[in-house]
Amino acid sequence: MPNPATLSAAPASPGAAPPPILSIRGLSKSYRNGARVLDDINLAIAPGEIFALLGPNGAGKTTLISIVCGIVNPSEGEVRVGGHDIVRDYRKTRALIGLVPQELTTDAFETVWATVSFSRGLFGLPPNPAHIETILRQLSLWDKRDARILTLSGGMKRRVLIAKALSHEPRVLFLDEPTAGVDVRLRQDMWQVVRGLRAGGVTVILTTHYIEEAEEMADRVGVIRGGRIVLVEEKTALMRKLGRKELVLSLQSPLGAVPPALAAYDLSLSGDGTELTYAYDSQSERPGISRLLEDLSAAGIRLRDVTTRQSTLEDIFVSLVETRA
């Protein structure tokens, strides 16, 4: 993908897209043992975007986040947050970023209110009880404000981590596996929280191994494998471009085999012979569905029902990882 435009350019003309809040150019990371965990990463994230970074374990997701957040030093390349270089303007960029780590590391004996307030103070900001209250209410933690963290459930502890990350009013929030260990109901509640943050102007970048999380929330999806970004695409465009659709034909009478007259359609027959499946996509040059239904009728095959189903983002992700290995 092309390098993102520089953030120091002249003000954008009316109607033009705003400059990216996060700009990464030629970013690489190598260790002394020769391991290269990131290789020429180029990425631009727009203000107010929800961006999902997907990849198998060891792909480089956490290393990339750690570099942007100033925890790990890059070997090559440039990263800018809000127009500021993360190395030269460390304090400015770090103040613009909130990080919710995957691990549940909290001050177990502190109260929720105390630990969130303390996190704000670490950035040199004056106390702001009204802001802390707003965060705790948004995250359904207000009733737990005086509870010691060790008494909270895993889902509540993860909400506390988000509250800590938002305490200093960042413009970019990194969520590293935000719903790991959270039950389905709390996961859906967390999705609502993330949407609310975006509505408030916060740019959200999340890594996740729950594909439905990216499918539910993300505006764009990036896939990283072996330290390289192999694809960045708007979610709906990605699914339209790579997602396959299937026409499932339920038969009135079982078939022993697909008739030779239908070989051109490459139909799949279920084990019990009661279903035919026809896979197609928007760019396919294979025979159309109307013609297929006509040929089925001509072959004496009668249908009980016809349904369609489409690939999920998980199907697409697995396909990308396998084909680009």
From TrEMBL:
Superkingdom: Bacteria
UniProt keyword list: ATP-binding, Nucleotide-binding, Transport
Gene3D superfamilies: P-loop containing nucleotide triphosphate hydrolases (3.40.50.300)
Pfam families tied to this protein: ABC_tran (PF00005)
InterPro entries assigned to the protein according to its UniProt record, in alphabetical order: AAA+_ATPase (IPR003593), ABC_transporter-like_ATP-bd (IPR003439), ABC_transporter-like_CS (IPR017871), ABC_transporter_ATP-binding (IPR050763), P-loop_NTPase (IPR027417)
Domain ABC transporter: 22-251
Entry GO MF terms: ATP binding; ATP hydrolysis activity
CDD domains: ABC_DR_subfamily_A
Protein family according to the UniProt entry: Belongs to the ABC transporter superfamily.
Designated name of the protein: ABC transporter ATP-binding protein
